Amino acid sequence: MNEQLSGIINVLKPSGMTSHDVVYKIRKKFNIQKVGHTGTLDQNVSGVLPIVIGKATKLSQMLTDKDKSYRCIMSFGKRTDTSDSYGQVIDSLDKDIDYDELRSVCEKYIGVMEQTPSMYSAIKVNGRKLYDMARKGQTIDNIPIRTVVINQLKILKYENNSLTFDIDCSKGTYIRSVVEDIAEKLAAIAYMNILIRTKSGQFTIDDSVPIEDIEEKDILPIDKIEIKGSRNIVLDEYQLKRYKNGLRVTKEYIKNFTESEKNIYKIYDEDENLISIGNFVDDKLKNMLMI
């Protein structure tokens, strides 16, 4: 086992492969057991999937709270049972879409809103993934509504009854639901034809690597990983010794201390080496992950 490797890999996931499949392939490629992902990317969606390995797996939950970006092609005139191109057509409607009206709807599709995820989404309800239930013909009432944030929706092209757009949004946003909502506001129907995740936190599709091409050099070290809402702390030699020995280190003795909204701190020594990820518990600095 190569348990010395730690960091994060910006994987370019192909369509048709589950996030678990990617984890398995990375685990096998580097002969390492500790491998995970920072948030499921649906099987039929391609694009950026950050994979954590080694000690970085302890950061998974911190890294899921990242904004995402997608490129979507939605097609008007048909509705499918899965809301995407992989399902069966269950309705059709021949309607001309006025471009000015379409643009107006998209321009207003910004801000905080509520969504009801599709039955074909990867979220779990009562411990079961919705898409597993849907594929067995099962349904569930009262799927939990999510509050999401759309930061930007930019039209790239509209032709042949298909709209291509880029969208920047919070974690947990379901683009299938966005597609159906846009269509509904236009008194039309549509389905998600193609979806590509182009960004997840600091990781972009331009820098992503196909699984078959990944090498050790593609592993981003832990000290280069951006953690949303975290703050940096520099401990002097005396404080660092106390911290490593589990003794009390409090905020008032830390030079230039700035509060973290997430209570997550990247802890450095005076030579700017990342030592640990920590938080405060009962006013005492605690280790979450020793680098």
What is the overall pLDDT average? 91
Overall, the morphology is elongated
Most strands sheet: 11 strands, mixed
Q: Measure the end-to-end span.
A: 19 Å
CATH class of the largest domain: Alpha Beta
Tell me what portion of residues adopts beta-strand conformation. 35-45%
Low-pLDDT residue spans: none
In the CATH hierarchy, the architecture of the largest domain is 2-Layer Sandwich
- What share of the residues lie within helices? 10-25%
How many domains? The number is 3
Q: Please write the string of helix (H) and strand (E) elements.
A: EHEEHEEEHEEEHEEHEEEEEHEEE
Structural class: alpha+beta
Q: In the CATH hierarchy, what is the superfamily of the largest domain? A: Pseudouridine synthase
Individual helix count: 6
The radius of gyration computed from the alpha-carbon positions, rounded to a whole number of angstroms, is 22 Å
Provide the CATH topology of the largest domain.
Pseudouridine synthase
What is the tally of beta strands?
19
How would you describe the overall organization of this protein?
With 291 residues, the chain is α+β, with helices and mostly antiparallel strands. It folds into 3 domains: 7-66 and 202-224, Pseudouridine synthase (2-Layer Sandwich), CATH 3.30.2350.10; 69-193, Pseudouridine synthase (2-Layer Sandwich); 231-290, PUA domain (Archaeosine Trna-guanine Transglycosylase, Chain: A, domain 4). It is 17% helix and 36% strand. The protein has helices at residues 19-30, 60-63, 99-107, 130-135, 175-185, 237-244; strands at residues 7-13, 35-37, 46-53, 68-76, 78-80, 89-92, 111-115, 124-125, 128-129, 146-159, 162-169, 190-200, 203-204, 209-210, 219-220, 231-234, 265-268, 274-281, 284-290. Strands 1, 2, 3, 4, 7, 10, 11, 12, 13, 14 and 15 form an 11-stranded mixed sheet that branches. A hairpin with a 2-residue loop joins β10 (146-159) and β11. The model has no long low-confidence stretch (mean pLDDT 91).
